[in-house]
Design goal:
The complex is a heterodimer. Chain A is an alpha+beta fold. Helices cover 67% and strands 10% of the residues of chain A. The longest helix of chain A has 32 residues, at 224-255. Chain B is an alpha+beta fold. Chain B folds into two domains: 3-111, Ubiquitin-like (UB roll); 117-246, Alpha-helical ferredoxin (Fumarate Reductase Iron-sulfur Protein, Chain B, domain 2). The N and C termini of chain B lie far apart (62 Å). The chains are: A alpha+beta, B alpha+beta.
Chain lengths: 258, 248
Amino acid sequence: MNWLSSFLKSSIGKKLLMALTGLFLCTFLVVHLTGNLQLFKNDSGLAFNEYAVFMTTNPLIKFTSYGLYATILFHAFWGIYLVYDNKKARPVAYAQVDGKANSGWASRNMGLLGTIILVFIVLHMTGFWAKYKFGEVPYTDYHVNLTDGEITAYPYDGNINGKIEKFTEQGFERVIVKDLYAVVNDAFKNPYVVIFYVIAMLALAFHLIHGFKSAFQTLGLNHKKYNQLIKNIGIGVFGIIVPILFAAMPIYFLLFNH
Amino acid sequence: MKITLKVWRQKNTKSKGQFETYKLDHVSEDMSFLEMFDVLNEQLINEGKEPVVFDHDCREGICGSCSMYINGRPHGPKNAVTTCQLHMRSFKDGDIIVVEPWRAAAFPVLKDLSVDRSSFDRIMSAGGFVSVNTGNAQDANSLPIGKDIADEAFMSAACIGCGACVAACKNASAMLFVSAKVSQLSLLPQGQPEAKKRAIAMVNQMDAEGFGSCTNTGACSAECPKEISLSNIARLNREYLSASVAGE
């Protein structure tokens, strides 16, 4: 395995680790976005809360999520190390640099953009993940009318076994569930939080406009036939659609608070 | 034209260096940038001062000697030209022009604007060659090479090794240079037997010289006087990866 350690120590190997972890994080973004789009559902948060229970109890997803946390930390700190490492290659700085003449702003500021995203992830995880796992989260008792499907939500004060309990009673499907939706709703009442989320998504957009296509280049996947497609996915999907949909969530809650 | 120059002056590799300001009152816009420096040096010699040291040789854009970082860009404001092919008509009367040497740990300043680029030579010695028996030249048609491949190899071989890629890169990475040299050989059948060994040896030497790593900003290719393509870097990544994983 001597070759592996010398490969990973080389400048190309170091970048490959950034590319592979970065692309894995891109796939996570798509999954995270798809799941969280349920926040827009007009059901008082029933589907979202059931989804939250599934995501935190399914063993396979739990296992993957620990891998994900490790990947996020690795990508962030390896990136910071690379910025530091690369500074050594130019000990005396230029007095004047005309960066915009030859490269995109995002490509020169991946470290800065990444740091904004890291700060965002820490605050985001504290506000939702840690609160859901360790904090006090209210329970809500959903009554789903089995004849017309109408959903009514009531606060629930009692105790249940675990995060969710489902049963049928007098023509209603009852779902008593830990209400993460209420936490989301509450957090995005604060316009400063919403502004911070929007800024973080802007940073994410620029980070990925460069990062997505750059990862393919680092992997050596550069081909006339596919370069444009890779660039378009990087800009269209990860630079525009994903960040806008994510940013729409806090804005939606701020404007249409339930 | 009247030009004000802010030129980096540094006694030797160990000394610190600083900017000196010079005024030139009679600059013709037909002069090349280096001819303007010749005029400056004449002026300095007449004043009994030490002339500015800068690298130059062919002055027709093919040797890769000239190396000036002008107003924040290697080889100045024009694309696809070397400093010697840059003319004063690219500047305006009264301009202040800042001239610095290439700045990289692997390119130590020798004096003023002249830097030591022998790290490139050591990278070439590590694997930038094809080992062949030098007997009679073989028949040209015995090795058929497609026109597209020949063109691609030729475009990579256009690299003159000036180091503008390193100078432009925010990480002072030499990936464009190394990838062009690896590509020009590995694209052709003569270079293929040693392709794996070459990629590993040249990248290892590049790292040992203290160049930074590539972050795909594209600044190197944008500033390259020979417009070497970024696809070379992807090819080097590919070759290095496959050589590491599948090589012996």
